[in-house]
């Protein structure tokens, strides 16, 4: 979960951070096996800004 006081664009920064973290873990573990998969990276909910959607109760 990410919380911030910024007005807009935070969800894109959070998704980018999650993607980079997942790719970093993949890179560190690929010497062990290549049978890894990065999946289900998604935004569950957003509260504030111009539009709310999904899970908004924090």
From TrEMBL:
Matching SUPFAM superfamilies: Molybdenum cofactor biosynthesis protein C, MoaC
Alphabetic keyword roster: Molybdenum cofactor biosynthesis
Protein name (record): Molybdenum cofactor biosynthesis protein 1 (inferred by orthology to a D. melanogaster protein)
UniProt KW Transport keyword: no
Pfam families in the cross-refs: MoaC
Record-annotated Molybdopterin cofactor biosynthesis C (MoaC) domain positions: 2-49
Biological process, per Gene Ontology: Mo-molybdopterin cofactor biosynthetic process
Pathway annotation: Cofactor biosynthesis; molybdopterin biosynthesis
């Amino acid at each position: 979960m990410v919380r911030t006081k910024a007005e807009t664009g935070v969800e894109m920064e959070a998704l980018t951070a999650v993607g980079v973290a997942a790719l970093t873990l993949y890179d560190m573990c690929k010497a062990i096996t290549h049978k890894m998969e990065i999946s289900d990276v998604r935004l569950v909910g957003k509260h504030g800004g111009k539009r709310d959607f999904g899970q908004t109760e924090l």
